[in-house]
Write a structure and sequence with these properties.
single chain; about 750 residues; alpha+beta; Penicillin-binding protein 2a (Domain 2); Beta-lactamase; Trypsin Inhibitor V, Chain A; 3 domains; seven-stranded mixed beta sheet; 26 helices; about 35% helix
């Protein structure tokens, strides 16, 4: 009996029950993964395939430039190079000797020219599947040209070393306006200032070159290579004027030198009616092209005293960050008496006082058991509003604050924009710390009325002050005038923004006159400039936070805010000196002369020229003529007719030399030394110490030494004005006839 080879029904059933389900599961698994790869995750796998099959090279966009209002370049990107080698190309050289020769020449050259570790270069040659290994970035054109010339001379195969265009940021003005301009990081992104604030406009959009590669990752010809052009960034035109910026920074640097502030100084020049910032600086600052160096001598001394490495690194980082900060917008201070223009204008607007209202100063006023002293060590007695502002009398402004009342005080404080940031187009703007109405008791109101208790940023203070004197309009300060694309089209234009009308034009006009009287009082304050109409107010405040922290009472903030022309303000300037050291700390002594120095140069530059009275013209210095080679008699007559005193040294008949030289400005009755010998030696004299002398005393003292006096300081003619600074150190040896410049100031509250 033969056995059947056909499967039994039992076997068939077993096949159906076991094998078929397994096959179905397998087929389902395959279908699922095919669906996942080809449909669901197709984009992912396509990208992975592209990574293997295509090579993408980024083409960096050029960052837009930054200009001042006159088109002067403040920041620009220049072409530099990323230098790279081609390991796959070197590996493809058939002759092993030639291959090693080229590797050695290339490594030696790049090590010397780029300062890259030689072994690092050799290690990169091991990546034989790569067509590009970067060796150095931000390489200057001159360096790349030297590399290229050397390799060509050494017969290195073309493109074994190559360069790709990149950009590097340059700041041609170095330290000028550094805190406003800001800078970029290594990746080219803005970090501070307008570089950060307007990064999206400046940056542009990078392009790409996409090319095919073979299985080994090597580039191969590909007819569909694609290049996506880079879109270069837009350029900024700022409201800053580098000439005004120079005047401001020069004055701030001089102030730092004279008063050694422990926490820097800052200044702002703004168009009073529009809010356009014409200059803004923090000093000591930093060089945008060398920003990691600490520029403050005071801070460098702090670093030098630290021996622990970790502590040194922490302090260095903190000091570096501090110098990068824009003090004018990022740090608060106690405004002191400058704030009295806010209290006074608010009270005038509410008509709770008038210009004729009187206020009594008995040296001290007590509010709810708390005494408030005047800055002066004497009583101002009874005074009207202008006199109270001129005297900067604290008790008077306590009374003005009381007349205004807490509710109105807080209302105007907010109306002047002092409860919020100004909205200036710069990053990291801080805002005020103030007493709200809910906590404004009589003591708080008294203190706030004359500028203590509340802390503001300098940009808040100058913006509010501008509203006081520009007709009552609160404007938004700004630093970018317009944004322009690469074709010269204006992408965005900043228009002046009037946020609100705070006080009436009538009240504003009253305040302009009062503040002009403050500057002109008693033959001029320290901010007075002969021939100009200027209004201003000084401020001196105790830095209570620092005093409390260090358990001291002698840490002050000095400031001065002025505007010109006083009857129709064009510009307003604020200078703040944080923690001046030495014997003087009043704002009227520390900050006011710096403001005057800026305005003396800024106003003629802006087209405003002095208009002198007959009396002022009669007192002006005399410009010396050239009398060399004239007879002694003729030269003496010429000088005498000009109101000068000739002093003849020698026995010759003609003048062979004169001191001061032709073109120098000399006060009337000043001395001119005339030498008459063919070969003469200038007679010298030691400069006396004039500190603390009045104008007449200093003039008489210098005349006795056959030296000339040049008067500096708006208050020089005022009773009580004393010499505080002189341009020659006492004891310095100078030729007879030398002009000694002396700064005279009158001390009053700032």
């Amino acid at each position: 009996m033969s056995m059947s080879l056909k499967p039994t029904s039992k076997m068939v059933n077993r096949l159906h029950l076991v094998v078929v389900p397994v096959m179905l599961v397998f087929i389902g698994y395959v279908v699922f993964h095919l669906f996942t790869v080809s449909v669901k995750d197709s984009a992912k796998y396509q990208a992975m395939a592209n990574d293997k099959q295509f090579r993408s090279i980024t083409v960096n966009a050029n960052r837009g430039s930054i200009y001042d209002c006159n088109g002067k370049i403040l920041a620009q990107s220049a072409t530099v190079y990323t230098v790279a080698i081609d390991p796959a190309g070197i590996d493809a050289i058939k002759d092993p000797v030639e291959k090693e020769r080229q590797k050695k020449v290339i490594a030696d050259c790049l090590t010397e020219k780029l300062g890259v570790d030689r072994q690092t270069i050799l290690d990169k040659y091991e990546k034989t599947s790569r067509r590009q290994e970067n060796i150095a970035t931000k390489v200057e054109k001159q360096v790349w040209d030297e590399i290229n010339a050397y390799l060509t001379e050494e017969n290195i195969d073309y493109n074994m070393v190559f360069a790709q265009n990149d950009t590097k940021r340059y700041y041609p003005q170095n330290e000028l306006a550094a805190a406003v301009i800001g800078f970029t990081n290594a990746e080219g992104d803005g970090q501070y200032g307008v570089e950060l604030q307007y990064n999206d406009y400046l940056a542009g959009v990078d392009g790409k070159i996409i090319s095919a590669t073979d299985a080994n990752g090597k580039e191969m010809p590909y007819k569909n290579d694609k290049m996506y052009e880079a879109q270069n960034g837009n350029s900024l035109y700022l409201t800053l004027d580098m000439t005004l910026q120079h005047y401001l920074e020069k004055a701030l640097e001089s102030t730092v030198s004279d008063f050694n502030p422990q926490n820097r100084t800052c200044g702002i020049i703004m168009e009073a009616k529009t809010g356009a910032i014409k200059a803004m600086a923090s000093v000591p600052g930093f060089d945008l092209n060398d920003r990691t160096t600490i520029y403050s001598e005071l801070d460098r001394a702090k670093l030098a005293a630290v021996t622990d490495e970790e502590e040194y690194d922490e302090l260095y980082a903190a000091l570096r960050e501090k110098q990068w900060k824009n003090k004018a917008i990022s740090e608060r201070y106690y405004p002191g008496s400058v704030f009295k223009v806010i209290t006074g204008s608010s009270a005038l607007e509410e008509k709770v006082i008038s210009l004729g209202s009187t206020f009594n100063c008995g040296r001290t006023i007590t509010v709810a058991g708390t005494p408030f002293n005047c800055w002066a060590n004497y009583s101002h007695g009874t005074q009207d509003f202008t006199a109270a502002m001129t005297n900067s009398c604290n008790p008077a402004f306590v009374q003005i604050g009381q007349a205004l009342g807490a509710e109105n005080f807080c209302k105007y404080f907010a109306a002047y924009g002092l409860t919020e940031p100004t909205g200036i187009d710069l990053p990291s703007e801080a805002t005020s710390l103030y007493v709200p109405y809910s906590r404004m008791g009589p003591v708080e109101l008294a203190s706030c009325s004359f500028g203590q208790t509340t802390t503001l940023t300098p940009i808040q203070m100058i913006t509010a002050y501008a509203a006081v004197i520009n007709g009552g309009q609160l404007v938004t300060p700004y630093v970018v005038d317009k944004i322009v694309d690469t074709n010269g089209n204006v992408v965005k234009k900043t228009e002046p923004n009037i946020r609100r009308q705070v006080i009436s034009e009538e009240t504003s006009a009253q305040m302009r006159q009062v503040l002009e009287d403050v500057v002109n009082t008693k033959n001029g304050s320290n901010a007075y400039i002969q021939g100009y109409k200027i209004g201003g107010k000084s401020g001196t405040s105790q830095n209570q936070e620092e005093n409390n922290r260090l358990n001291r009472e002698d840490i002050y903030v000095s400031s001065y805010c002025a505007f010109a022309p006083a009857d129709d303000p064009e510009i307003i300037i604020l200078i703040m000196v944080d923690w001046p050291t030495g014997k003087d700390y009043y704002g009227s002594v520390v900050a006011a002369p710096a403001v005057a120095d800026v305005l003396k140069e800024a106003l003629p530059y802006l087209g405003y020229y002095p208009e002198y009275t007959e009396e002022e013209l009669a007192q002006m210095d005399i410009t010396l003529p050239d009398v060399v080679e004239q007879s002694v008699a003729t030269a003496s007559d010429t000088l005498t007719s000009l109101g000068l005193t000739p002093v003849v040294i020698g026995s010759g008949e003609e003048v062979t030399g004169q001191v001061p030289a032709r073109g120098s400005s000399v006060r009337r009755n000043g001395k001119v030394i005339l030498y008459t010998d063919e070969e003469y030696e200038e007679k010298t004299v030691e400069v006396p110490d004039l500190t603390g002398m009045t104008l007449s005393q200093a003039n008489e003292t210098l005349a006795a030494y056959d030296l000339n006096l040049k008067v500096s300081g708006g208050a020089a003619q005022r009773e009580g004005a004393l010499a505080t600074l002189q341009n020659y150190t006492p004891g310095a040896s100078v030729p007879k006839g030398t002009i000694v410049e002396v700064v005279f100031v009158v001390k009053s509250d700032g």
